[in-house]
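tool_call: predict_structure(chain=1)
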Amino acid sequence: MRESKTSNGMRSSIGKLAAAVALLAATWLLGELRIEDPRPWVRPYEASGPVRILQFYASAGAVLPGQTARLCYGVEHAKSVRISPLLAEAYPSTRHCLDVVQQHTTHYTILAEGYDGAVATRSLTIPVATPPVPEQVFFVAASDCRGVSECAAIVERKRLLGGV
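tool_result:
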């Protein structure tokens, strides 16, 4: 009976030792492995040319206050990208778009820095249009006037007085 307990205890110790060795080996392998870039669409460093801005445009010519516009850009041979006013999601890519909510007319500038220290810039403006004022309609009861010209005069007076 005692022999059985000892051999079970030994098996348990050997199992724990094997698990520890496996964990140690896995940790070492992870340190040796090259982890891929989580953004595969971003091109790695290419030393075959100067930094260039391929495109920088807005999806809309003008928007109303509170509306969203897409701001799109593409760069080549860039180490870093900044868009001012500061947009945190900007990074080197040949094609990337960001959603921007416009409250007022905004002038955007993209700055791409190359691996050689050279800088390329472009700018654009997304205008915010003032919303159209709805046309006011005034009504006059037929009993308030004695003809079309008198009704027109009453409506004009109401319009000038702000509907009073």
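agent: The chain has a mean pLDDT of 80. Proceeding to next step.
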